[in-house]
């Protein structure tokens, strides 16, 4: 079964528009036969996990023991399988290693780090090239500004695509299958 790693903010809560859209995306992915992988905690990770689990899908949470100690983070209840990592670096590496494609929802520095690290590992040949689909307009300016600044290789963001709804994310993923 193909696997999709979903990156996104830990801040949104149930009822927030982005939480509900991400929950719908998790359900669509599960219904289409994808395994959903997240960082395993709250916010958009929980939303995707909830949607996938409620739709009968399998959810893997890649967690980080130091985050749990420092922040008291707890694995969300929709995760069916936990991959516990000893460092944040190992966690991001596992999120990349386990995925056939990536979906990047809005987020902060952690999500930005995941997007950049994923893209750079693929560019450098440390990970196979796979599609990266960013949700909505949130990442457009960041990616465009990085492209036009003249400080990065032209293929740095080459696998990044944009989608505007959970349905267009699913359609984009299915074109790469």
Protein traits:
seven-stranded parallel β-sheet; 45% helix; globular; 7 helices; Rossmann fold; 177 residues; alpha/beta; 7 strands
Verbal overview:
With 177 residues, the chain is of the alpha/beta class. It has a single domain (3-172), classed as Rossmann fold, CATH 3.40.50. It has helices at residues 17-31, 44-54, 65-71, 88-97, 109-124, 140-148, 166-176, and strands at residues 3-7, 35-38, 59-64, 81-85, 101-104, 132-135, 160-163. β2 (35-38), α2 (44-54) and β3 form a beta-alpha-beta unit. α1 packs parallel to α7. It is globular, with a radius of gyration of 15 Å. The mean pLDDT is 92.
Task: Output the CATH class name.
Answer: Alpha Beta
Can you tell me the CATH topology? Rossmann fold
Looking at the overall shape, the CATH architecture is 3-Layer(aba) Sandwich
Spans where pLDDT lies below 50 across 5 or more residues: none
Order of helices and strands: EHEHEHEHEHEHEH
Oligomeric state of this protein: single chain
Strand order of the largest sheet: 4-3-2-1-5-6-7
In short:
Helix content is 45%, strand content 18%. The chain is α/β, with parallel strands linked by helices and 177 residues long.
List the helices and strands and how they pair.
Elements: E1 3-7, H1 17-31, E2 35-38, H2 44-54, E3 59-64, H3 65-71, E4 81-85, H4 88-97, E5 101-104, H5 109-124, E6 132-135, H6 140-148, E7 160-163, H7 166-176
Parallel strand pairs: 1-2, 1-5, 2-3, 3-4, 5-6, 6-7
Helix pairs in contact: 1-2, 1-7
């Amino acid at each position: 079964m193909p696997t999709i790693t979903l990156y996104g903010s830990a801040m949104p809560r149930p009822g927030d528009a982005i939480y509900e859209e991400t929950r719908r995306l998790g359900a669509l992915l599960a219904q289409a036969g994808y395994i959903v992988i997240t960082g395993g905690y709250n916010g958009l990770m929980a939303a995707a996990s909830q949607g996938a689990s409620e739709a009968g899908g399998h959810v893997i949470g890649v967690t980080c023991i130091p985050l749990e100690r420092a922040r008291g983070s707890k694995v969300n209840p929709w995760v069916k399988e936990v991959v516990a990592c000893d460092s944040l670096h190992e966690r991001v590496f596992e999120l990349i290693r386990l995925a056939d494609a990536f979906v990047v929802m809005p987020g902060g520095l952690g999500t930005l780090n995941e997007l950049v690290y994923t893209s750079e590992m693929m560019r450098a040949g440390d990970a196979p090239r796979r599609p990266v689909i960013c949700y909505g307009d949130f990442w457009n300016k960041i990616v465009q500004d990085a492209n036009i600044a003249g400080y990065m290789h032209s293929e740095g963001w080459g696998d990044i695509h944009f989608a505007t709804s959970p349905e267009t994310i699913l359609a984009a993923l299915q074109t790469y299958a």
